[in-house]
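User: Structure with flavin-adenine dinucleotide, C-alpha cells only please.
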Amino acid sequence: MKHADAAIAGAGIIGLATALELAAAGLRVTVFERGQAMRESSWAAAGMLAAADPENPTPLRPLSRFSIGLYPEFLANIERLTGKQVPLRTRQTLQGAHALPPGVSQISAETIQSIAPGIQPGGLKFFLLDEHSLDPRDIARALPDAAKAAGVTLLEETAVTAISDHVDSVAVQTPGGAWAAGNFINACGAWAAALADVPINPRKGQMLLVHSSEPLNVTLRIPQLYLVPRGDGRIVIGATVENAGYDKEVCPSIISALRNAAAELWPPVREARVLDTWAGLRPAATDSLPILGMDEAPRRWLALGHFRNGIMLAPGSARLLRQMILNEPRGVDAAPFSPERFAGMMNDNPCPAAI
Ligand SMILES: Cc1cc2nc3c(=O)[nH]c(=O)nc-3n(C[C@H](O)[C@H](O)[C@H](O)COP(=O)(O)OP(=O)(O)OC[C@H]3O[C@@H](n4cnc5c(N)ncnc54)[C@H](O)[C@@H]3O)c2cc1C
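Assistant:
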C-alpha cells in the first residue's frame, strides 16, 4: 500500500491551497482529483476577493480578513514556484446597496459617474470598497503546477471512492489501489457528501463573459448582480444562485435576463459582444458558512462549504486547516466553522452526492 502523510480528495482551490500549506510544513502530500484539477467551481468563479460584501454572513468576517491578509503571500508563493503570475484585475469595487452598512460613506452621484461613466444607480446608495479581483482561470493555470513544484503528488482522473479508519492511518480507496494516509482531508466541494456525513449541497451559478469597447475599471456590484472587468475589455457578469442539484446546463433565458439586468446598471453592456457562458456548482453548507475541522474520527478533516467566497477564503482556510492538523496556534477563531455545529442533523442533506 502506498503512503502519504496527508491525502487530500479534491484539487479545487481549497484542496490545492491546503496541499501547499501542508507541503510547506514538510508533509508528504498526495492530492486525488476525480477529473482535472481546478475545473469545477474554482474554474467557474468570478474572482472577487469580496471580504467586505455586505451580503456575506457576519461570522465570516474574521476569516475573510485573515485570508485577505495572506493573499499577497499566496500569490507570491505561486509565482516563486512556477514563474507564473496571477495578476490583480481590479483594485476597487463600487458597491450599491439598499441601505448603507455601518462605517461606510455614501459617495456622490458625480463621483459615481467619474468612477463608472454611464452607470445608472437606480434607487441604490453607492460606496467604494478597497477590494481586489483576479481571474480564477489564471489561478487554474498556475496552482496545480505550484503544488507539484512544492513536492505535492497530484493524481488527476483518480477519484477517492471510500475511506476507512485504521489505528494510525486512514485507508483511502481509489480505482488505482489503496493508500494509507496519516491524515485525510475532504476538499471535494459540492460532492463532499459522498465521503462524509455533511450537509453540503450544490448551488448552481450561471454567468456570462462579454467584451465591451467602453472601459470599466472597477468591479460593480449590487444585490444579486455583479460586473467584474478583466482589464482587457472582457467583463464577467454574474451570477445566479440556484438549487438545481448537480445540473450544470446553461439556460439561454437566464443568461439573457442577467445581461439585461447588467445593462440596466451599466448600459454599455447592451452593445457588448457575448464571448462565453457557463455554470458552476458552489459548495454550500445549510448555514452558508465553511466547514473546517475534524470529521467524526481523528485524522479525518473537512475543508468544505466555501459557497460564494472560496477564491477569497482559500489562503485563510488552508492556513487554518494546517494549524488545526499540526496543532499549531490558530491565526483566527475556528469555532464558527466547526463541523460539530451540525451534530445530530447530518442526515438532513436533501441532495446526497454521487461520485
Ligand atoms: C458562478 C460562480 C461564481 C463565483 N464567484 C466567486 C467569487 O467571485 N469569489 C469567490 O471567492 N468565490 C466565488 N465562487 C465560489 C468559489 O468558486 C468556490 O467557493 C470555490 O471554488 C470552492 O472551491 P473547492 O475547492 O471547495 O471546490 P471545487 O473547485 O468544486 O473543487 C472540488 C474538487 O473536488 C473534486 N472531487 C469531487 N469528488 C471527488 C472525489 N470523490 N475524489 C476526488 N476528487 C473529487 C471535484 O472534481 C473538484 O475538482 C463562485 C462560484 C461560482 C459557481
